[in-house]
Design a protein that fits this description.
heterodimer; A: about 325 residues; alpha/beta; ten-stranded mixed β-sheet; 9 helices; 16 strands; globular; B: about 150 residues; alpha+beta; CBS-domain; two-stranded antiparallel sheet
Chain lengths: ~325, ~150
């Protein structure tokens, strides 16, 4: 198993498609297809997308209660390339609700906090993590952290991976993530800028802000930083330069779901073929993300889908 | 059909030095009746199920009774469970474990499940490390779909 994905705070993602969604109104969903339930959490999503690309992975994290069981079972139903190794806690796994409105091109998301993780479960997880890590080449550490998991604990996880020579790719936000970035523990850094355009205590506004933040990240020890810039673009920095990758076509907001995870999966897939060629990996990530936007909601893109999108964006060197 | 096509790709396991209490809590939280027991290298060294705990908490003569619809001494049962809760699972597990390999036929795994009256069999790779689990419901499912004899 080359890839280990860690999702400390998985979720049951519920997606409803409602045309002309309005608050304070009753909406009925007349087609069952427009109300779906899927396992979620950024690491799990990456595992699923990788399995669409034919790459097996092991998924770890904390699950709990009925919702936790549904997440695990759904994950199994969706893919036979994902091996599960979750520690179950006492409280229920969270649910995330996304209301997709194609008419107005909006996504409204409501994400809950997640279960409290007790100390015993943290210990149990660490032992299992140590073993799974040994068998992997690459660790994906993405998403939010549930209550009860200290930032130090996350640091320990990524530090172990880095110290044993594994690649660590992370898309996340918050103190634990920024601490890992500052300590140069992550190979590829992708700040999750969906809810706030804030990173390392700065509010990102101009393209120059993004370029600076990406460059700083690489200086702190990461091999590559990827910052999504406006809807169609991504700023990518390595020790060799800074680039802007920009989709040629306009992308509908309602098609953005899961594109960040596809980006990460694309990068992982390519880096496993060649650890050195970072820019190529970023291009593959971009192509995977654009491929994902062809679908409404989360779907599994194939290698052919990604290859069809390798020309769908422009690459311009900024530095 | 091979084991690898029918197994559940889940590697939940109990470490040999984790406690009976941790095992019981895991069973409840995961809605399982047993787990493979592994060492520090994730090699399967045993299998522990709820019946191993129950049998241990009951008086030794209990197994001699052909059919008993009651527990002869509930106080003893409760006391015994309390006594063993902090003990390592390695004390109560079945060892050496019965295992199958991903490349084994599903028929072979089915045969073991039925003849040995098992609920689940750990699936291990060449290094004896856990890679999945083959359960009764997997057996019934492949049989139901008529795939058990297919290649």
């Amino acid at each position: 198993m080359k890839v280990l994905t860690v999702t400390l705070n998985p979720a049951l993602d519920r997606e409803v498609v409602v045309n002309n969604f309005q608050i304070n109104e009753l909406h009925r969903i007349n087609n069952q297809k427009y109300s779906v339930m899927e396992p979620g959490g950024k690491g799990i999503n990456v595992s699923l997308i990788l399995s669409g690309l034919g790459l097996p992975s092991i998924a770890m994290g904390f699950l709990g209660g009925f919702i936790g069981s549904i997440v695990e079972q759904k994950l199994r139903m969706l893919s036979d390339l994902v091996t599960t190794n979750f520690v179950f806690v006492d409280e229920e796994t969270r649910e995330n609700l996304a209301i997709i409105d194609p008419s107005n091109d909006t996504i409204t998301e409501i994400n809950s906090l997640g279960p409290n993780i007790d100390e015993k479960s943290l210990k149990q997880f660490m032992r299992r993590f140590d073993i799974s890590l040994k068998r992997a080449e690459c660790m994906v550490f993405s998403g939010s952290i549930p209550p009860g998991v200290p930032a130090d604990y996350c640091m320990e996880l990524v530090k172990k991976a880095k110290d044993s020579g594994k690649m660590v790719i992370s898309e996340s936000t918050g103190d634990h993530f920024e601490l890992a970035v500052k300590n140069g523990l992550l190979t590829v850094v992708k700040p999750d800028l969906r809810s706030k355009k804030e990173y390392m205590g700065e509010t990102l506004k101009s393209l120059e802000d993004y370029v600076k933040a990406a460059e700083e990240t690489v200086k702190m020890g990461s091999k590559m930083a990827i910052l999504s810039y406006e809807i169609e673009g991504d700023v990518v920095a390595t020790s060799e330069g800074v680039w802007l990758l920009k989709a040629k076509e306009h992308i509908e907001r309602s098609h953005l779901l899961g594109t960040g995870d596809s980006f990460v999966a694309g990068v992982v897939y390519r880096l496993l073929k060649n650890r050195k060629d970072l820019l190529e990996a970023a291009k593959w990530g971009m192509a995977a993300a654009i491929a994902e936007t062809k679908f409404i909601g989360k779907e599994f893109i194939s290698i052919e889908d990604v290859e069809m999108c390798t020309e769908s964006f422009e690459l311009s060197r900024l530095r | 059909m091979k084991v690898k096509n029918a197994m559940i790709k889940d590697v939940s396991a109990i470490f040999e030095n984790e406690t009976v209490e941790e095992f019981i809590v895991s069973c409840i939280r995961k809605n399982r009746s047993g787990f493979p027991v592994v060492d520090e290298h994730f090699r399967v060294v045993g299998f522990i199920s709820e019946s191993d705990i129950i049998n241990n908490a009951l008086p030794s003569y209990f197994s001699l009774l052909q059919s008993a619809s009651f527990i002869p001494d509930t106080h003893q049962f409760v006391r015994k469970i309390g006594e063993i809760k902090d003990e390592p699972v390695s004390k109560f597990m079945v060892t050496p474990p019965i295992v199958v390999h991903p490349e084994d036929t599903a028929i072979h795994a089915a045969d073991l499940l039925i003849k040995k009256r098992l609920k689940a069999i750990p699936v291990v790779d060449d290094e004896h490390q856990l890679v999945g689990i083959f359960t009764r419901i997997n057996l019934i499912h492949v049989a139901l779909e008529g795939k058990i004899n297919s290649r």
